[in-house]
Each structure stands twice: as structure tokens, then as C-alpha cells.
Amino acid sequence: MTSPSPLSPPETLDSTVTSADGTTIAYSAWGAGEPIVIIDGATAYRATTPENAATAELLADEFLVINYDRRGRGGSGDTPPYAVEREFEDLAAILEHVGGGRAATVFGWSSGGNLALNAAQAGVPIARLAVFEANAVVDDDRPPLPADYVQRAEDAVAAGRPGDAVALFLSAAVGLPDEMIAELRQDPKEWPPLEAIGPTIAYDGRQVGDAMSGRPLRSDLWNRVDVPVLVMHGRDTWPFLAAAARAIAEHLPTATLKPVPGENHSTSPEVLAAALRQLATEGA
Prior knowledge:
By secondary structure, the protein is α/β, with parallel strands linked by helices. Helix content is 38%, strand content 19%.
């Protein structure tokens, strides 16, 4: 008598959709059922976030899980000029053409959470939202994002220096010391992929807007978001990110705050999959 073989991972579908402005958006999909869409944050895309695929495989028994490359990264194209609305259209194309227009759960990592909230504010049809440590600086826990951050990133790219845009992100947004950034720029394996997505650094800056200004969130920010929102942060993350999650949850009338196991701006696929499964089946 032979022992049963372990379950095989669900099959992955890799394909593309065309956004409203003609840009090709590449995605991977797993499973079938009600859609769950995963949106990456700054600098990230499918090839750099294997935890997204691991999360999808845990959910594919019940859901259609979709992870796409945001414009300008990985397998997706880009069409200038950039506007935040173009990324809302990208998400809408994914929801319509991959998700079949069904009620979807949308999850965003970091500034991908800001994008998800912005898209819901703009009327993209989203049934429920989840964000993990969406970007906000609402007090003096850390320096705010410089007021000219987006302009400096765009100027660097326009001058043919996308690496400088990445360095600005690592310094002003992430908070890495200059010597660490200088060392990273000399790394022949790590730096070229970062430099390649340098033109998209300002995209996340525009999605974040003034949420990292060091001031309380504006009263009209996300004031039209009326779907359930699950706001997560790692229990052992940096204090300002936990403070940001609390501020966002307090700001949104339909939000639920959920500290989960995790630190340093991340959590595990097992934790994330369980939280998304509960949200998609029971609501926040």
C-alpha cells in the first residue's frame, strides 16, 4: 500500500490585462472563487515578493487570488505621464477582467495599502479592504516625509539618475543611514533591480500624499470609503508604523484594527492568509 502523496501547490496562471490607457499589466492568479487582490508597496513586485505567492497558495482552495505588477515594474508596462488615477484604472482592469467583476477583497502592503484606500475613495468597486502598515506619519515618532519628496524623485528620474530616486526613498522614507545606502549602491546583485524601478518611486510618493506629513490625517482623506477595512500591523514592528495603523483605524468609521505576529514591516504568509480568509468570509 503506497502512502498518499503530498498535496501539489495550486496551478499558477500568468497573464496580462490592458489598462484604460493601453498599459499592459502583468499578473499571476491562483485558485477560483471570490477574488482577493494583493497590491505591493514601493519597490516591490511579483519577482521580489515570494510571500505573496505563498499566501495565495494558502487561499487558493477557496478564493481566486491575484497578485499583479504595478505599472513600471516587473512584467508590467508604463505609459507617461503618471497620475494616481492610472493606478486606480490598473486595479479596476484587474478586478473586471481577471476577477470577473465580482465582489473582491483588496489587500495592500505598505504604500500599496494607501493605493487601495485611494482607489476605494475614487469609486473603484471594492467589497472590502485590508492594509498592512499603510504609510502614515501622524506625530513626531519619526521625521515626516519631506514636502518636496515627490518633486526630488521626479527630477532625479528626469535627469537620468533613477538610482538617486531610490536613494532618496531609502533615506527619507525608509530611514536608512547614508553609509548603508552607499554600500548598497555598490552591490552588483541588489542595486540594479532597485535602480530599474527608480522611475516608480515618485508613484508611491503621490499615492501617499500628505499622510506622512507628521500631522493628523485630513478629515476628508478616505471619507468616502464605506466598506469594511481591516487595518493590520505587526506586534513588534517599528513604533511609528503601529501608531500609523492605530491612526488609520481610528480615522475610518468602518475599520477594525488587528495587531498580528510580525515585525519590521512584515508578517508571515500563514498569518496574512488567515486574516484575509476571515475578512473575505466574515467581514472585518
